[in-house]
């Protein structure tokens, strides 16, 4: 019989202890600004429905991993979280996502105009906070350049996605390169943490790669759930020819799946039975095994990067966190495997 | 005994059935209120088999504030 391992709760505790405070601050900061009282309703919605303890946790842990003082990361963590809020709001706008598993998005509830404004305000606030970083000018310039590089990379990923939308579907290989670009946000977070902690060039690079691998793991995990419709987005993805990576990989290996997807693009409505057929064809390609293998591979690579750093409490925490992700991915599916019937 | 693949596909299809225009607002209401009993009632109305309620109901109710981690909950 399936029982929960408590791993998810331990990971949640790590994030709360290291990033909970900043996550709360980031979700409230725009709401608490008296100059923005005309936007109270959407900002309340953000404060209630968005929270990101991962970003500040990773920046803080990277800083501590190289022997730095975590207090120096507060402003930057807050700024990075707000920048992620912008990406998150604009992503939904670009993909025209009105609901996520029955919950409306900011764009879905308040429309394009408000989503544009709130996303812009979050970014502007992020840069104004970055200007207050308690570090010397040189370090401030390095961090600002890293953030600019990240923004350029995210813009590139979105541009490719938009281009592909107009051209039709792409290869799984190309889609994976987009996933890697999207994972660059965590890479940047870890690099920034290490820079703020006065890490050596090698330490910054190793922690950056750890962040990249962790980012890829999280993207692959989400991608698999989209591919099997556990996020209820499959219908829209198929209609808009924005197939997730796992589904693209599977369609390159299954003639039945390819034909079914081609048929569905031209139909008015996609029924439950169609979704079931798509998911069955997808899983018949053994894409689940491949996803598990890939996630484990990236977790191993992340651990390898950490093994080259000095052992301390923070590197041990980072190691535990990334090693746990493949287990959690499998654990979620185990609830089904152990179900009778 | 169904295979894991079949069960994953079943969940995909039952979730899709909750997206039907006459069911969607009721699910949305139950999810927003985090009302487990109401959600079970709506799922039964949408003909989600009893066996799958233990997967689908927690999946829908576990969704907290949007966040990057954990990705699959």
Largest sheet of chain B: none
Total beta-strand segments of chain B:
0
Encode the helix/strand succession of chain A as letters: HHHHEEHHHHHHHHHHH
Strand content of chain B: under 5%
If interface size is counted as residues with C-beta under 8 Å from the partner's C-beta, which chains form the largest one? A-B, 53 and 40 residues
- Rg for CA atoms of chain B: 12 Å
Mean pLDDT score of chain B, rounded? 86
* Poorly predicted regions of chain B: none
Description:
The complex is a heterodimer of chains A (341) and B (73). In chain A, helix 4 packs antiparallel against helix 5 (106-130) and helix 12 (255-265) runs antiparallel to helix 13 (272-284). Chain A has one domain: Orthogonal Bundle (Farnesyl Diphosphate Synthase). The model of chain A has no long low-confidence stretch (mean pLDDT 92). By secondary structure, chain A is mostly helical. Helices cover 75% and strands 1% of the residues of chain A. In chain A, strand 1 (99-100) and strand 2 form a beta hairpin. Chain B has 73 residues and is mostly helical. Chain B has one domain. Chain B contains four helices and no strands. Chain B has helices at 4-17, 24-33, 36-45, 50-61. In chain B, helix 2 (24-33) packs antiparallel against helix 3 (36-45) and helix 3 crosses helix 4. The termini of chain B are far apart. The chains are: A mainly alpha (341), B mainly alpha (73). At the A-B interface, helix 1, strand 1, helix 9, helix 13 and helix 15 of A face helix 1, helix 2 and helix 4 of B.
Salient structural properties:
heterodimer; A: 341 residues; Farnesyl Diphosphate Synthase; two-stranded antiparallel ribbon; 2 strands; 75% helix; B: 73 residues
Write the layout of secondary structure elements.
The complex is a heterodimer of chains A (341) and B (73).
Chain A: H1 7-28, H2 40-49, H3 54-65, H4 74-94, E1 99-100, E2 103-104, H5 106-130, H6 137-167, H7 172-182, H8 184-196, H9 201-227, H10 234-239, H11 245-251, H12 255-265, H13 272-284, H14 287-307, H15 313-337
Antiparallel strand pairs in A: 1-2
Helix pairs in contact in A: 1-2, 1-3, 1-4, 1-15, 2-5, 3-4, 3-8, 3-15, 4-5, 4-6, 6-7, 6-8, 7-11, 8-9, 9-14, 9-15, 11-13, 12-13, 14-15
Chain B: H1 4-17, H2 24-33, H3 36-45, H4 50-61
Helix pairs in contact in B: 2-3, 3-4
């Amino acid at each position: 019989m399936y029982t929960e391992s408590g791993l998810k709760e331990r990971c949640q505790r790590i994030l709360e202890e290291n990033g909970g405070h900043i996550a709360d601050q980031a979700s409230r900061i725009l709401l608490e600004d008296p100059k923005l009282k005309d936007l109270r309703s959407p900002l309340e919605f953000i404060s209630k429905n968005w929270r990101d303890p991962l970003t500040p946790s990773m920046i803080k842990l990277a800083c501590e991993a190289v022997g730095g003082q975590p207090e120096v990361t507060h402003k930057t963590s807050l700024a990075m979280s707000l920048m992620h809020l912008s990406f998150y709001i604009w992503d939904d706008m670009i993909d025209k996502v009105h609901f996520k598993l029955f919950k409306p998005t900011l764009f879905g509830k308040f429309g394009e105009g408000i989503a544009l404004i709130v996303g812009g305000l979050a970014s502007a606030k992020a840069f104004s906070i970055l200007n207050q970083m308690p570090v010397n000018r040189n370090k401030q310039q390095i961090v600002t350049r890293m953030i600019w590089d990240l923004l350029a990379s995210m813009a590139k990923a979105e541009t490719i996605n938009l281009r592909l939308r107009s051209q039709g579907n792409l290869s799984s290989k190309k889609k994976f390169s987009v996933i890697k670009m999207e994972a660059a946000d965590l890479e940047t977070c870890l690099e920034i943490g290490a820079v703020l902690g006065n890490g050596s060039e090698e330490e910054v690079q190793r922690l950056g790669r750890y962040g990249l691998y962790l980012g890829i793991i999280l993207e692959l995990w989400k991608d698999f759930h989209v591919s099997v419709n556990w996020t209820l987005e499959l219908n829209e993805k198929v209609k808009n020819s924005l197939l997730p990576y796992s589904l693209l990989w599977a369609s390159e290996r299954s003639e039945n799946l390819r034909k079914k997807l081609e048929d569905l693009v031209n139909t008015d409505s996609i029924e439950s039975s169609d979704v079931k057929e798509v998911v069955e064809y997808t899983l018949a390609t053994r894409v689940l095994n491949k996803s598990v293998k890939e996630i484990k591979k990236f977790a191993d690579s992340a651990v390898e990067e950490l093994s080259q750093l000095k052992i301390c409490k923070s590197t041990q925490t980072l190691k535990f966190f990334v090693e746990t992700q493949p287990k959690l991915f499998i654990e979620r599916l185990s609830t089904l495997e152990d179900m009778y019937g | 005994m169904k295979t894991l693949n079949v069960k994953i596909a079943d969940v995909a299809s039952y979730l899709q059935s909750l997206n039907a225009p006459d069911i969607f607002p009721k699910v949305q209401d139950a999810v927003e209120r985090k009302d487990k009993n109401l959600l079970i009632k709506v799922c039964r109305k949408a003909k989600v088999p009893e066996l799958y309620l233990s997967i689908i109901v927690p999946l829908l109710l576990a969704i907290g504030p949007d966040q990057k981690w954990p990705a699959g909950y």
